[in-house]
Amino acid sequence: MSGLGFTFFNLEVMARYLPAILQGFVLTIYLAVLIVISGIALGLVLALIRVLQIKPINALIVIAVDMLRALPPLVLIILLYFALPAAGVRLSGFGSTWLSLALVLAAFAEEIFWAGILSVPRGQWEAARSTGLSFAEALRFVVLPQAARLTVAPLTNRAIAITKGTALGSVVAVPEILTQATTAQSFSGNPSPLTLGAAAYLILFIPMVVLGRSIERRFSWKR
Amino acid sequence: MQVTPAAQASSTGAAAQKRVLLDIRGLRKSFGGVEVLSGIDLAVRERELVFIIGPSGSGKSTLLRCCNRLEEPSGGTIVVDGENILDPRVDINAMRRRIGMVFQSFNLYPHLTALGNVALALRRSLGRSKADAGTAARAALARVGLAEKAAAYPAELSGGQQQRVAIARALALEPKIMLFDEPTSALDPELVGSVLRVMRDMREAGMTMVVVSHEMQFARAAADRILFIDKGRIVEEGPPQQIFERPREVRTREFVMQLTHREGIEP
Fold this sequence. Notes:
The complex is a heterodimer. By secondary structure, chain A is an all-alpha fold. Chain A has 9 helices and no strands. By secondary structure, chain B is of the alpha/beta class. Helices cover about 35% and strands about 25% of the residues of chain B. Chain B contains 10 helices and 10 strands. In chain B, the strands form 2 sheets. Chain B has a 6-stranded mixed sheet, with helices on both faces. Chain B has a 4-stranded antiparallel sheet with strand order 2-1-4-5. The N and C termini of chain B lie far apart (about 40 Å). Chains A and B meet through helix 6 and helix 7 of A and helix 3, strand 6, helix 4 and helix 6 of B.
């Protein structure tokens, strides 16, 4: 027991590296917020473009979305980080992690929004249009509010799953929680910073999971 | 004003002097090579209540849905209140505000209250202020006897109440003409009466109405004219007495017999 305590719960080591883990914590939050906002916004825009039913554009969206959903996010991060410079574009580790995860979230969000929009019965469009609302007004005031209700739960789950992928940024030296923890581990020769890192992830994501569940419950009520 | 053959056929009573509000000529509609409407001519005059009956698949709903271009006609002309709604330059959204429509499945917006359902188009389509739209929406709900249900969501209302809210939603825009697409077909029998009462009130208030429905008793009591449609054509049209008591066409007689038998009324 004392061996386990010394190895994983070494308070002296933990205290020494707490500031570094905290820095990683703040950076991870920053990165996660960026990913969620840009990913969901892009996904919504793609779904709205798809509603316009322009065949070649829709085909492009479907191909791009399928590729992004098929690729492991880590592969995408490494590709953007190591391959793009050959094409003359240099992204930082932070930039390539943000862009990769935002694109993956956008792909899933587009599918979720699209499914939500499709699930609104045709009669809702017809009723709205029959009262003189334009296509855009019918979409905004009648269809999207109903679609949103159905998208909140899957969107929250997907956003959590993908923002957890910020840990993949450690591969391209983004100083987020996992990077700070493994660095501290190699400097101290003790894995206690990893315990601290795990705690930091829990503190960050448990509220999101709880929030997701309460949103889900709230939106599944009155209909 | 030109008098169409359809209008001449109906030139009984006071309706003959009134202006034609809906003028349909040579209307055709095909769905992927299958012709659903094969040349329909129909003139509906101000304050007239025209009933459309016919077997399922005869094209009666499609005819109605062409009148506000929920379906795009394949040929012919449709003039509503003096404007050809098939003209590509026409502002179809502005025209639709003058053409109220009530659907079989109500199609109320489930995320909005009864008041919100009625007020939405007033605000977004007519651009009225929130207070102004609210007042007009309350007045429309009062007309269908649901003033006290303004804050209720559709899920909290009976089918009959939902359909009346849907009628109020169309009425609030003060349309020139109202189209009813089987307004009582999705209702439990005991709720049908409340909707028909509202429709009768509207007729008495002078609304021009085109109704697709199987409510034969209502047709007999309230319609000025009944059209019997089969296979995309008007088979026979005339006042209710003609259609119900001495139809000229065999097909009309057979159809009316079937329907009235089903209702338990003597043919």
